[in-house]
Each structure stands twice: as C-alpha cells, then as structure tokens.
Amino acid sequence: MTETNTGNALTIRPLALILGASGGVGGAVARSLHARGYRIRAMHRHPEKQREKYPAYEWVSGDAMSLKDVMAAAEGATLIFHGVNPPGYQNWQKLVLPMLDNTILAANANHARILFPGTVYNFGPDVLPEPVEESPQNPTTRKGQIRVAVEERLREAAWNGTQVILVRAGDFFGGANVANSWFGQMVKPGKPLKSVTRLGTPGVGHQWAYLPDLGETFAALDARAGSLPAFASFQFEGYWDADGSGLIDAIRKVSGNPKLPVRPFPWFMVPLLAPFMPLMREVAEVRYLWRTPLHMKNDRLVAVLGHEPRTPIDEAVAAALDDLGVIAPAGHSEREPEAA
C-alpha cells in the first residue's frame, strides 16, 4: 500500500497488480480501479513502451510465465487481475495453466484476491441458449476445455483460501487495444468507414461487452469483496443483440449513414487458412457462437450491485469507432447532429 497526505488526513491506497494491463479487459479494469483510488502496478515484458501511454501506473518488467517475476510484482498487492493470454494464440495447452498457477501462488503469498475474466467458450451446445452461472461446462472445443481447467484451478484456489471474483462476458468492443477483436472485424481500424461486416447468421442473437462497462463492473464487485463468497461467479449481460442486426444498425446510425453497405464475413476462407495460421484455427473453433444464440442473463450481478453498468449502445459504439480510428464516411458526421 501507499500512503498519501491529503491535508491533515493520511490516506492509504491499496495496490492492484494488473497482469494484462495493455490488453482490452486488463486496461479497462486498471482504469476503473485507478479511478476508485487504487495504486496500479502493471507487469509487462516491455514496460518502457507502456510508460509513455499510461504514466499514472507503475510499470514493472516481467513475464507471466516466470514465478519469480510474478511474485516480485505482486509484493504488497491487495488484488491481482489475471488477464494474460499466450501471445499470438499459440501454445495454449502449454502456457495457460502455468501462468495461472503463478498468479495463484503470488495471490496466496500476499493474501490477495484474484479478479478473472471468464469466457463463453466454457459452455457447450447442451446449455445454450441461456446458460446460468452454475450451468454444466461441457465444451466441445479444445479452447473451451482449457478454460474449464482454468476455472477448476481457480475454484481449488478459492477452496484453499484465495478469494476469486470471476465475471463472464461476451465479445468485447471499445478501446484502441482491441483492434484484433470481433468488433475490429466488423469495421476496418484506422480506415474510412465504407461498409460494415456481418459476422453471424442473420437472425441469430449475439452478446457484446463494452469494455469500460465491464471494467467498472469488476471494480464495483471488488468494492464489495467482503460480502462475496470465496468463489464469486457472475454473468455480465452487456449488450444483447437479439437478431444480430442491432450493432450493425448502431454503427450505421452513429456514422450518419443509415445505408452503409453490409458485407458478409468470409467464413469460407477460415478452414482454408486454418492449417497455416494459428489464429484461424481458433476462429474455426468458435464459429458455433455465430450460428447459435448464447444469452447470459445478469440476475445475480444485479442482485449484488443493484444494476449493471451500461453505456447507451449508440454512445458506446461511437466511442469504440473513435478508439479504433475509424473515419466516418465523407459527407457524414460521426454522430447525428443535435436538435436546435
């Protein structure tokens, strides 16, 4: 913890270690925790590049695969946010669990809780379309099976005395560092907005998570950690696009061009590229989520927080396009003009 003089009062600021602060979810959680008074320590393999972008944080050099590095970075931390994944979507089976084990050991040594972003990959078709927090996890994909093993490890950590707060959400949007997200496939980052790509089957719903709202949700739950169980699992509803056209309509609206052309995603290319590109193999595994609706309700989250942080969809999409450097089409404003 850090002591800060504020007049005659001495304020003690808790320390949060963010693993994955340069990523989408980790960055959003770091900003929300920092706004609530946390001192943020972020570990990165190249911290010098990050200090210029986020000077308010304490950046330390380290690798999540190194127990020594994680233990050193976690010294004095009240919580650890674990938001790291293998680079380039490679070596998941060899890297995911060892990285998590390092976080669990560091949290245990510092009596810190773990905040963890869950995924929808844990769920198989048997519990769709509306799984709940306690639904059986019978994934049919390799990535989903690894994620189930991850959560089993976290439950074991909670059983052994390390509190875990897990929030499961849909696909992310919002933030300049999520250009490689599914939302980044709907538009072309840094380019003029000439069309929007439809990712799913027409009429099939899809769940989206606006990252600033998800970050605030983690921070709000952390503030209530004392009243939560050892393993606290929640579903984040975010924006439920009931028929797969809602997000497209929002992009059209905020671009000022309601007739923006819609193009289909070239799914036929995915199996052709999968043998040569690890990313395409991952994409092929999760295609079922674009063919089948999966809608996670947030009843448990609302019961604890009273509400779910939620930015109006048009406002969220406008900010997300701006974050990605998407340029509104010529002759159209990025947002609709205000009424006189």
UniProtKB/TrEMBL annotation:
The chain crosses the membrane at residues 12-33. Residues 20-113 form the NAD(P)-binding domain. Keywords: Membrane, Transmembrane, Transmembrane helix. InterPro entries: NAD(P)-bd_dom, NAD(P)-bd_dom_sf. Signal peptide: none annotated. SUPFAM superfamilies: NAD(P)-binding Rossmann-fold domains (SSF51735). Pfam families: NAD_binding_10. The keyword Transmembrane helix applies. This is Nucleoside-diphosphate-sugar epimerase. It comes from Martelella mangrovi.
